[in-house]
Design brief:
529 residues, alpha/beta, Rossmann fold, six-stranded antiparallel β-sheet, 21 helices, 15 strands, globular
């Protein structure tokens, strides 16, 4: 295991100075600790043994932004971390710069109320009483400083011996503060990257579980086209897994190491379309303070995925077609022609052929996107796959949630699942399984509540009993109502209608207004205008 440079520096510091042996032990424990609060608590305990101390506070100061970020407050009883930002005043900024640029970064303030920098820091932490403070600053990154404050509730309480102790061990203190900074700022970034990688692996689960997912025919189509640069059009109802299929195609293509950029076409504001797709130059319009790289440039060398492509306006379709024809464009406010190399995948839950007939979608754009269509079947069309899917989701989710109990299905559970129509398809099934795992508390998984949910799934190819043709808006309206009934009117959040329907909550609300769907505050049923 590689030893970080600041740890090596600290070890050499121990050899050069006659440091308290307990501080040596303390720093060793801090370096071995992976928990932020444990590290802070150990630092507090050391100083408490050698100095008068009521609490310690640590702040992250961003020099370039003149901003305080985070604060850690430790007493004998507890360690509190607050993630917040505060812009400092001009006087405080000047004092902070003088402190940072000084050769000696250990400062004694006998009464914090007489110093603007300490007053402002104290206000940030929530202190209102006079106190004695020994402050020490350590550079932790580019323009980033950790400020450690040792505080006692008494004016002029520290003596020269106390101040000299902190100065004598300033270098090892710096190294300890850098380690804590790493735990506070860098480790969460690493964790988020790990989570992103975990999510990417989850997306790729399709090719490992194709038998369970019942999509062997779809996987066969994917294998035929993945290695090519041919445009692909994914068709199927909301929730069948179109984004998962798009990710799988990308990961099996020669472009797998390059970006996959996903665009929800239903969420793009018409007036910002050009800026979003093609980017803009600095000063191109009011508020354009910097150059912006659009979606096409972001995807250069990789894949661009247009989800809900049927939601694009006719004007947006014209602009998209122009780019797809020669893969060149200009940023808004620019004169230079930008060339890109991208593979195009599009997805829709609507009948684009009928939209073309109704002149709602351009025929030439449809021809270009529809080079290799893949239709993803609904879950109700393959109910024989539900037991395998349910078992697969339960096993995976139980591991992800680290459940303290083993799950098992009730004897009649699979029959309950197969009797339900699943308007939200595979995504809805996954949400139902997750909800059942959480609520079961070790009891057998049961889904009797599904029998009380009415789901009406109108067919695109069939009309009403009187042979009246059902419009696409009516089909969409009924589908949204059925999902809202399932979620009891809940739109946002985990298991909400927006998640099941795979759209932003704002997009769903706009669609509901357009279709005349309204929800009571505590609905027993969905009310429509």
């Amino acid at each position: 295991m590689t030893v970080p440079s600041y740890i090596a520096a600290a070890r050499s510091g121990f050899m050069k100075r006659n440091l308290p042996e307990s501080f040596n032990d303390c720093l060793g424990k801090i370096y071995r600790s992976e928990d932020l609060k444990t590290s802070v608590r150990m630092l507090y305990s050391f100083f408490k043994d050698y100095l008068p101390l009521d609490y310690i506070t640590m702040l992250i100061y961003d020099v370039e932004q003149s901003m305080l970020r985070y604060r850690i407050h430790s007493t004998e009883e507890s360690v509190v971390l607050v993630e917040e930002t505060k812009k400092v005043t001009e006087d405080t900024r000047k004092e902070a710069l003088a402190f940072i640029n000084s050769e000696i970064r250990t400062l004694y303030i006998p009464n914090g109320q007489n110093h603007s920098i300490v007053q402002e820091f104290d206000e940030h932490v929530g202190i209102r009483e006079p106190a004695s403070t020994i402050a020490h600053g350590a550079e932790a990154g580019q323009n980033q400083y950790v400020v450690l404050a040792l505080v006692v509730w008494e004016e002029d309480r520290y003596n020269q011996k106390d101040i000299d102790l902190v100065k004598d061990i300033s270098e090892p203190i710096d190294n300890a503060l850098r380690h804590i900074y790493s735990q506070l700022v860098i480790a969460p970034l690493r964790n988020r990257l790990t989570a992103d990688n975990r999510e990417a692996r989850k997306r790729l689960v399709l090719n490992k579980a194709e038998g369970n997912l019942g999509l062997r025919d779809v996987m066969s189509r994917i294998e035929q086209v993945a290695k090519l640069d041919t445009p692909v059009l994914l068709m199927g109802e909301t929730g069948v897994g179109k984004e998962l299929i798009a990710n799988t195609i990308h990961q099996h293509s020669r472009r797998a190491e390059r970006p996959l950029v996903s665009i929800n076409c239903g969420a793009i504001v018409e007036t910002l379309l050009d800026s979003e797709l093609f980017g803009h130059e600095k000063g191109a319009f009011t508020g354009a303070g910097n150059v912006k790289i659009g979606f096409f440039e972001q995807a250069n060398g990789g894949t661009i995925f247009f989800d809900e492509v049927s939601e694009l306006s006719m004007l947006a379709q014209v602009k998209l077609l122009r780019v797809l024809q020669n893969m060149t464009f200009q940023r808004v406010g620019g004169q230079k022609t930008v060339s890109v190399d991208v593979r195009v995948i599009a997805a829709t839950n609507r009948d684009i052929a009928r939209m073309v007939e109704n002149r709602e979608f351009r025929k030439d754009l449809w021809f270009r996107l529809n080079t290799f269509p893949i239709t993803i079947p609904t879950l109700r069309e393959r109910k024989e796959d539900i037991p395998g899917l349910a078992e697969y989701f339960a096993k995976r989710l139980a591991v992800e949630m680290n459940l303290p109990y083993r799950y098992r299905f009730a004897p009649y559970a699979m029959e309950q699942l197969q009797k339900y129509n699943w308007p939200g398809n595979v995504r809805e099934l996954e949400n139902v399984i997750e909800q059942a795992l959480i609520l079961s508390r070790g009891a057998p998984l049961s889904f009797h509540h599904l029998a009380n949910i009415r789901t009406e799934i109108p067919s695109v190819s069939h009309g009403e009993k009187n042979n009246q043709i059902i419009t696409m808006n009516e089909i969409m309206r009924r589908h949204i109502i059925s999902v809202l009934n399932l979620t009891r009117g809940r739109i946002e959040g985990r298991g909400g209608a927006a998640e099941i329907l795979d759209m932003k909550s704002s997009t769903l609300r706009a669609r509901m207004r357009k279709l005349g769907i309204r929800v009571a505050k505590f609905p027993d049923k969905i009310l429509t205008n």
